[in-house]
UniProtKB/TrEMBL annotation:
Pfam families in UniProt: Arm-DNA-bind_3 (PF13356)
Top-level lineage group: Bacteria
Presence of keyword DNA repair: no
UniProt protein name: Integrase DNA-binding domain-containing protein
Keyword vocabulary terms for this entry: DNA integration
PANTHER family: PROPHAGE INTEGRASE, PROPHAGE INTEGRASE INTS-RELATED
Keyword Plastid: no
Organism this protein belongs to: Pigmentiphaga soli
InterPro entries from the UniProt entry: Integrase_DNA-bd_sf (IPR038488), Integrase_DNA_bind_dom (IPR025166), Phage_Integrase (IPR050808)
Family: Belongs to the 'phage' integrase family.
Domain Integrase DNA-binding: start-end pairs: 3-88
Length: 126
């Protein structure tokens, strides 16, 4: 059964992560923190793989389906979308200037407040 925007908005976090399927390998994982993450599950050369597409609501249902279709096209060509994403990530890090790297580093640090709060609670200085 396909997901709808109404169904996505009604999803509530639980004590453990859980999955709600859409169609053709696309699903959302609802995390205990309340985050909802789009993922695509597929098989390539007999191996199960998954690709993280992005977070809801920043990545809409319509756009998640488009990304899934792009990834499915790569799978049909015998390519791993997950490996391609990792290669692009590594290539981007190698090409980054110091300013771009530091900007990405601090942006990533701001996106992980739970770790920072836990670190500060222990009284350790970084």
């Amino acid at each position: 059964m396909s997901l709808t925007d109404t169904a996505l908005k009604a999803l509530k976090p639980k004590d453990a992560p859980y999955i709600v399927s859409d169609d053709r390998g696309l699903y959302v994982e609802v995390l205990p923190s309340g985050s909802i993450v789009w993922r695509y599950r597929y098989r390539l050369d007999g191996k199960r793989e998954k690709l993280t597409l992005g977070k809801y609501p920043a990545l809409t249902l319509k756009n998640a389906r488009l990304k899934r279709d792009e990834a499915a096209h790569l799978v049909a060509l015998g390519q791993s979308p997950a490996q391609k994403k990792q290669q692009e990530k590594v290539a981007g890090a190698e090409d980054a200037t110091v300013a771009e790297f530091s900007e990405r580093f601090f942006k990533d640090r701001r996106c992980a407040p739970a770790a920072s709060a836990a670190h500060q609670a222990t009284g350790l200085s970084g």
